[in-house]
Amino acid sequence: AYNVKHTYCNYLIINNMLNKSIKFLIENKLVAVLLLVLFVGWGVVNSPFDWNTGILPSDPVAVDAIPDIGENQQIVYTKWDGRSPQDIEDQITYPLTTSLLGIPGVRTIRSSSMFGFSAIYIIFEEDIEFYWSRSRILEKLNSLPSGLLPSGVNPSLGPDATGLGQIFWYTLEGRDENGNVTGGWDLNELRSIQDFYVKYALSGASGVSEVSSVGGFVQEYQIDVDPELMRQYNISLGDVVKATKHSNRDIGAQTLEINNAEYLVRGLGYVETIEDIENAVVTSENYTSIRIKDIAKVNLGPKTRRGILDKEGAEVVGGVVVARYGANPLEVINNVKGQIKEISAGLPSKELSDGRTSQVTIVPFYDRTELIQETIGTLNEALTMEILITVLVIIIMVFNLRASILISGLLPVAVLMVFISMKLFGVPANIVALSGIAIAIGTMVDVGVILSENIIRHLEEDEGKLSINEIVYNSTAEVSGAILTAVLTTIISFIPVFTMIGAEGKLFRPLAFTKTMALTASLVVALFLIPPFAAVFFKKRNVKSVAGYIISAIIVVLGIAALLFGYVLGLALIAFGITGILLLKKKISPKRSNLINIIISVTTIVYLLAEYWRPLGLERS
Prior knowledge:
Layout: H1 2-27, H2 29-46, E1 73-79, H3 85-100, E2 106-114, E3 117-124, H4 130-142, E4 156-157, E5 166-175, H5 187-203, E6 208-214, E7 219-225, H6 227-232, H7 237-246, E8 251-258, E9 261-267, H8 274-278, E10 281-285, E11 288-291, H9 292-295, E12 296-302, E13 309-311, E14 314-323, H10 329-343, E15 349-351, E16 357-367, H11 368-398, H12 401-425, H13 431-461, H14 468-493, H15 495-498, H16 502-537, H17 545-564, H18 570-584, H19 590-613
Antiparallel strand pairs: 1-3, 1-4, 2-3, 5-14, 5-16, 6-14, 7-12, 8-9, 10-11, 13-14, 15-16
């Protein structure tokens, strides 16, 4: 009994505080207007849709087509050229795997040993922060005991990205000024341009984690030794390697002071041409130097390849842009495109034998922008159509244009408030997350319908005894507790979804979040914003005829202007204006005027649905 009484007292306290807040906003309508402007403006700024925000800044929610349900994973990559998978497994993969197992938060480790390299996939618990796990791995790699790995082998941590990080693929192609393929560039040239120019330029775009080169030939110096000459001069392969390494370095010395001037003394030895390697001394015998060119041939050639990049049957050179973890994929792609536009003019060109000019051009062949925009566009259209259908049903069922405007206005404001919460809590916008808003629209409308119908009932029962503010407050306070309880019941029922873990949690938690935020936003709008505006909308006015005529004339003029600019909706404005003029001239009664306005609204909405939704197909729209 004590617990029941205590709970009931808490309910009364909460309900009293709620009703006081409602009363304050009804009496101070300017505060309600400012709140509405704040929510709408902030929501437009954070909207994931490609809206023109005008003078407002744009800080959209992170947008992607599908949710990232991959594991919390980091990759340690180790190269050891020329070694067999068994050597890689025994001397790199196994020692590293056993050492990395001690990192806190590690759930499991998967490894792969292939010819010339090792890849270790470290799977962390879901609650481990992404960059915290990377710092622990680097800490462990830096503290590995000496002698654990072969000499010269250095493991490296993979890019700070997830499995969905590959957002943009492109190729380098020779094209003329009209964009036609000309060719004229070999794979070696294109790969060099990619490795030494394009790759670094695109890596500077904001949000890019890594730009990897794919395809073509990596240029390298190649020394083809002659075994017979090496045997004659008693030179081993190690001597050739040592001579090559020593020939590619500068040597520093002290300074010399001559005539009060100080001169730096250093030996210049960096390799710049093939001749520099050819003239490198391997050994000397009887005061005669034996150089590399005496026992080998030196030339430029392609590095051994483990794969190619194919485009429509032709071998090409390209790259893949990987977005950083937590970055907005759509924003990163736009940054990359801006960087491509900036560097395109500086890419090399050459004149072909037929007189045409071939310019190296960056040509995208996988751009997630289209997929993201198609996904977001589909949801944008679905939400718009759903709101239109809901407004149509409300107008017909409630049969009160003012109440219908109040209820319908709840939906877009609540949706904009959901975008604000998504930005604050870091929930990305994708097809699953935004579907939660669509699911919640039915319940959101219920809240507005209950409140508006109760306000209309109190207005009809009142005989002029109470002011409009008192009527709206009494009708809102009567159902506020019931509305709060009903919405909280729906919200609480979704709590188990937030406890999901793994791929299921990453897939459905955003949906539960957006649905919960949509219901919470609808509750805030219904209880705190609809009552003040209802007190304005339902207030009885004694509008002077002159002012009424002016307002109606302005509406007609706006309708004519809309028609001139090609907007058919101008007809609806003209119809509203004419109806207002007829009402002022007392040609029609207020009830008939309300009926005509409802018919105009229904006709306009049905037209919009038929024009844009086209449920029966394009040929029967």
